[in-house]
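Team,

Forwarding the record for the chain on the shared tracking sheet. I've put the sequence and predicted structure together so nobody has to dig through attachments.
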Amino acid sequence: NQRILADDSQQTRFRIQALQQIVSGHPAQAEAGRILARKSGDPHLQVEAEKLDSDRGRRVQALIQLATVGPAMELQQQAIRALGDDLDQPQALDQMRLWLDSLEAGTLAPELALDVIVAASMAGEVALVERAVQLKEGKGEDRLADHQWALVGGHRERGRALFLDHPAAQCQRCHSVGGQGGVAAPALDGVGSRRRADQILRSLVDPSAELVEGYETGTGVSAMPEFHWALSADEIRNIQAYVSGLTD
């Protein structure tokens, strides 16, 4: 387990399993394992090291620290998500309220918006959950405005995997990248250089809002189905990150 944990060529899930087994089965080595995980540079493993702290107060403090001053955005995102499991703790609940206040005021880093919404929705406090749901669903007047939490902060490689293999969206069936894919929809090579991120997001969540020349339909409705109903919030954000990153 120690060898697997220290080996950065191993998949993250295997390293997390190794850390969990060290902590649960070898208490004398638990702190050494957690220190190794903290130094790994892997956000998931770093957060797992704090989640495995049996002292809940200390765990909450560590996660808040990572979420607010973590050296990498993904580390902050993962720490916020993890804090959702501790929202019965006053300090965690107070911090989540502060993040929601910042989100509503427009002062929260936009890359963290979805993570705060998801974490807050795990609370046992009805009012907090309702705030999170409202922020996620928006006002129902403009789909782009209602999906601002997907504009930035996604993981491009996960988005690429979804683009290639999502069973419902099947993006590559119609769109192509690098000559691979379908021809029923515009090729996406370099689209991130031609269109702003908000334009790309609108195309994802409201495909009929602007039809690409040469791909119009007689009905004025895009041939692209409204797949955002079949995608999770994380999937939308990750696909957005992938497509926006397709630059020349």
